[in-house]
Design brief:
By secondary structure, this protein is of the alpha/beta class. The protein has two domains: 239 residues, 3-Layer(aba) Sandwich (Rossmann fold); 113 residues, Rossmann fold, CATH 3.40.50.1100. It is built from 18 helices and 15 strands. It has a seven-stranded mixed β-sheet, sandwiched between helices. A four-stranded parallel β-sheet has the order 8-7-6-9, sandwiched between helices. The protein has a two-stranded antiparallel ribbon with strand order 2-3. Strand 12 and strand 13 form a beta hairpin. The longest helix is centred in the C-terminal third of the chain and has 20 residues. The structure holds pyridoxal-5'-phosphate. The site of pyridoxal-5'-phosphate has 18 residues, from helix 6, helix 12 and helix 16.
């Protein structure tokens, strides 16, 4: 009960309550993120340099760390109306199954064909590309959610799309590729022979399965060598965190209706975009002394950027063509073990989240994939939704926190981000169901070795 009303299973906003501004958390951060650096000169990237790679308006958003509220253009809001607002769900069935006095809420972003939150930024980035008069955009995709989200957005706006898809995902998730092609995208397995950097990587590592960092290098090269194209990225960047603030703004507006103020907010962290978006308005309150909520980033033990990485300038890609970002990283040459099924494989982390973690505003946990899939199975059986493996990292820690409440008898309010659904991850679920899934945790030597490749920035 809150305000005398019982809290429903689903808290919906009305369409009119879809936020009309994105919230730029950087404006409220006490310590700003370090600037992006030119990978050759190590000088801060200028707008002009960034505009060779990214769309103009997105560069402006990337560099803006002072404007708190940025209006969402009408055209983007129209698209948001097709699949938003997304519900906040009170996980009554999960609470009961755990036997916890905690109240568990999740914000569900899987109600669209891409199956994840990535559509929130894809439509924004495609819109600004179109507005600039470009022919098309290029990008990378790992598991395929980002590529699908961008394909949907480009189809809607009439833009061409070239996707470089990590080779192992291209082979293991042919369904994803077909969805992208259905929306008109051109999909190439990466590394490929269509770019210089792809050829170079193939030569150095014949038979490689590819990696996100490598696909990024290829997509950037294609964009910068083809007139009328720019590159877009689905995570890590400040602009993506900005667009994803819609998740947190909606979640906060919904919970405010019932006077619920979450004590613990949990999200999975790959490049950090959903988590940065989910926590944004709540973290803003914490920074301004209006809340003492606890924030937890959950990452895979097989790619532990926060919990075992360094806070340093690093390349965002394997080919070392992208700007350097100061972030928690396990090194741009780090490639997680191929038996890692759970996504979240990027070597670095959002500079915004990295700064917050460095400043002690955010905690991080790493979890092993078998325990992630156990949590996924428990969640599917109690709450009904088949979760994406990525999202299940957050579920794992939400359950762990609810178990702690069971021991202490504390009635905490826990909010987590359920970023998407797992229909395209059934081969991973098969491994888990057949008892073939194992955990692979990099050794200290492996991480130390990848970290020796960090650029030497003065
Ligand atoms: C891409 C993805 C993630 C991880 O990306 P972030 O940028 O860290 O949010 C998490 N969940 C799902 C379902 C995804 O598709």
């Amino acid at each position: 009960m809150a305000n005398g009303n019982p809290i429903p299973y689903k808290i919906f906003l009305t369409e009119n309550e879809i936020p009309s501004f994105w919230y730029n958390l950087r404006a409220d951060m006490k310590n700003k993120c370090a600037p992006l650096l030119n990978p050759e000169t190590h000088k801060p990237m200028t707008s002009a340099e960034l505009e060779k790679v990214f769309c103009k308006e997105l560069v402006r958003q990337e560099l803006d760390d002072t404007t708190r509220l940025i209006p969402i253009p009408e055209e983007i809001r129209d698209f948001y109306h097709m699949y938003r607002p997304s519900p906040v769900v009170r996980a009554y069935c999960l609470e009961k199954a755990i036997g916890t006095p905690a109240h568990i809420y999740y914000k569900f972003e899987g109600n669209n064909t891409s199956g994840s939150h990535k559509l929130n930024s894809a439509i924004a980035q495609a819109f600004y590309a179109k507005k600039q008069g470009l022919i098309g955009v290029t990008t990378e995709t790992g598991a395929g959610q980002w590529g699908t989200a961008l394909a949907m957005s480009c189809a809607y706006l009439g833009l061409d799309l070239k996707v470089f898809m990590v080779k192992i995902s291209y082979e293991q998730k042919p369904g994803r590729k077909e969805v992208m092609r259905t929306y008109g995208a051109d999909v190439t397995p990466s590394p490929s022979t269509t770019t210089n950097v792809g050829r170079r990587i193939l030569e150095a590592f014949p038979g490689t399965n590819g990696s996100l960092g490598c696909a990024i290098s290829e997509a950037v090269e294609y964009a910068t060598t083809h007139e009328g194209y720019r590159y877009v990225l689905g995570s890590v960047l400040n602009q993506v965190a900005l667009h994803q603030s819609i998740i947190g703004l909606e979640a906060k507006a919904a919970l405010d209706k019932y006077n619920v103020r979450p004590d613990i907010i949990i999200g999975c962290a790959g490049g950090g975009s959903n988590l940065a978006g989910l926590i944004a308005p709540f973290m803003g309150e914490k920074i301004n002394g209006m809340s003492d909520a606890k924030f937890i980033a959950v990452e895979p033990a097989s790619c532990p950027s926060f919990t075992r990485g360094s806070f340093a300038y690093d390349y965002c890609d394997t080919g070392k063509v992208c700007p350097l970002a100061k972030m928690y990283t396990v090194g741009s040459q780090f490639i997680p073990s191929p038996n890692h099924a759970g996504g979240l494989r990027f070597h670095g982390m959002s500079p915004i989240l990295s700064q917050l973690y460095h400043d002690g505003m955010l905690e991080a946990r790493s979890v092993e994939q078998t325990s992630v899939f156990e949590a996924a199975e428990f969640f599917a059986r109690t709450e009904g939704i088949l979760p994406a493996p990525e999202s299940s990292h957050a579920i794992r820690v939400a359950i762990d926190e609810a178990m702690k409440c069971k021991k202490t008898g504390k009635e905490k309010d826990i909010l987590f981000g359920l970023t998407g659904t797992g229909y395209f991850d059934l081969s991973s679920y098969r491994k888990f169901n057949d008892g073939e899934m194992s955990d692979s945790i990099p050794t200290d030597e492996e991480i130390a070795k990848a970290l020796t490749q960090l650029p030497q920035v003065e």
